[in-house]
């Protein structure tokens, strides 16, 4: 399910150092997610949960405060109205997943993840939301990258 994030780095790696670093953070998040999902006794381990939640919060924050901001700035600089409209349509869905991720973090921070069965359900739901989020983020990057790459080639 979350394997597609490596393909994203292959497609857009090198476009911009910020995006490269952020895609590396995505890969770390996916690895931490898998480790947490696969090691059931870790559900009650506050440190393991804390490490994952820190990566999760850093990742979603980087999208909102760095990556998306940069992509929108690039779209404005290129006069890319199509990409700006797409961002307006997609970002509310990404924002919704951010709120769920932050609620998951709050749940773990308060130590409310000792119920392993309930925690496993929340983690599975979060995994599905992350998968959808990655696809939405990739869509925005692809539209911006392809449009700007073509414009750059025309200008050269």
From TrEMBL:
<comment type="similarity">
    <text>Belongs to the Rsd/AlgQ family.</text>
</comment>
<protein>
    <submittedName>
        <fullName>Sigma D regulator</fullName>
    </submittedName>
</protein>
<dbReference type="InterPro" id="IPR038309">
    <property type="entry name" value="Rsd/AlgQ_sf"/>
</dbReference>
<dbReference type="InterPro" id="IPR007448">
    <property type="entry name" value="Sigma70_reg_Rsd_AlgQ"/>
</dbReference>
<dbReference type="GO" id="GO:0006355">
    <property type="term" value="P:regulation of DNA-templated transcription"/>
</dbReference>
<dbReference type="Pfam" id="PF04353">
    <property type="entry name" value="Rsd_AlgQ"/>
</dbReference>
<keyword id="KW-0805">Transcription regulation</keyword>
<keyword id="KW-0804">Transcription</keyword>
